[in-house]
Amino acid sequence: MIKISGIYKSFGNTPVLKNISAEFQPGKTNLIIGKSGAGKTVLLKLLVGLIQPKEGQIFYNKVDFLQLKKKDLRTLRMKVGMLFQGSALFDSLTVEENIRFPLDMFTDLTKKEKSDRVNTCLNRVSLDGINAKFPSELSGGMQKRVGIARAIVLNPSYLFCDEPNSGLDPKTSLVIDELIKDITIENNMTTIINTHDMNSVMEIGDNVILLHEGEICWQGNKDEIMASDNEILHDFIFASPFLQRLRNAAISNGFQK
Amino acid sequence: MYYREVIRQMHDIGVGSLIIVFIISLFIGAVTAIQFAYQLDGTLVPDYYIGYVVRDMTIIELAPTITCLVLAGKVGSNMASEIGGMRQKEHIDAMEIMGVNTAAYLIMPKVLAAVIIIPILVAIAAFVSIGGGFIASVPTGLLSGQEFVMGLRSFFMPYNVFMMFVKSLVFAFLLTSISCYQGYNVKGGSIELGKASTNAVVISDIMILLADYLIAVVLI
Ligand SMILES: Nc1ncnc2c1ncn2[C@@H]1O[C@H](COP(=O)(O)OP(=O)(O)OP(=O)(O)O)[C@@H](O)[C@H]1O
Ligand SMILES: [Mg+2]
After folding, report:
1. What's the domain range around A200?
2. CA angle B193-B196-B198, nearest 5°?
């Protein structure tokens, strides 16, 4: 479980996050949504310690994350997997070497066990057989999926994904969402996902947090979205006129969830 | 754990720099011999001093200093842009998240490899340089081969060789740690990366010359 309270972060004089408090439960897919520039990436980086907040506290299961010593922080991080918005694959290593990197660093597995593990992970992101390719030879969406494979290779307890399905077609996007949900439940992981993909929100939104102007302006699960009368939430989820018409039609037909 | 990376770096720095070190030392030795012969012209100093001067100039000063100045330009800028690129592409952040001690993982093997391999390069440079002095002076008739060798064997102080290794060790450490630091702490985009790479070379060069002076003051 991860708990944050009173997080405040600004760059120069522009506040990006103001007084953010939330709880992320294990075994659930926690989604952070908000329009581009809302501060989703900043919040995720704060949570893993790549950026320091001006104020506020972060707890990983009662452990005060911001007070951790460097060494303890590293130990904790071996249980963290993260997918970066830009994938951040090591471009001079092959796909196999990328995914194997954490295994090489932190495990004593044999060559065979490592390559089995790599293949299992590649299979889960539907990318069998691309082991020998370099990241530059992959499409953006494939890089994303390799990034996910690398993030889950050590069976982390905490998984952070920055827009896992941007750049993916709707079908693959669903597969990835399902995958993240499945491993979250299997390993009882605390999973936090940044997204602005409304399909993801409606499919796997166990706990959805909407960031708007640096504050949490709505929080709930996917089933509560339809029923909510939060204007900003609706503007965000039903952004296109097409979806708005659908929603209006649904409501006028007496849709209730 | 970093053993293989150290070996790889040693190979990259050592083998990768062999040709340039060879060419430069050959010419440095040749120029030293010719310049000194020119100074000697019409004096009472015996010709075999050319061999002696080439040897000592090379060992004490030229081999370690020039080689490391050149390596700062070649190896240093390379390290700064490699690590700086990894910083900008979030590779370093990605490693940090995995729990890797990135400073140790990325910088230490490079510094270690350099500290081992650069003194060897410098020793090679010294030999080649003396060879360069020989080639430039003996076939051209400035002095005979016997005289040159006699010069090489005169007034030899093993302490100078010790000084050469101290210098190359210190310079190797300076140029790699400065260059890696510049790359590791780079911010912004490609212009900043270019600047970091330039800074790596300029600062390394200045620090090498400063250290050269200090070592000379302390050890002589
Ligand atoms: N290093 C930085 N220095 C200055 N400002 C920054 C920095 N990083 C982010 N910001 C600012 O913080 C705000 C939030 O950025 P962030 O990257 O978190 O947005 P986001 O919600 O992830 O958007 P997107 O969906 O487009 O990825 C932006 O206004 C951005 O300009
Ligand atoms: Mg973002």
Report:
1. 1-79+156-222
2. 110
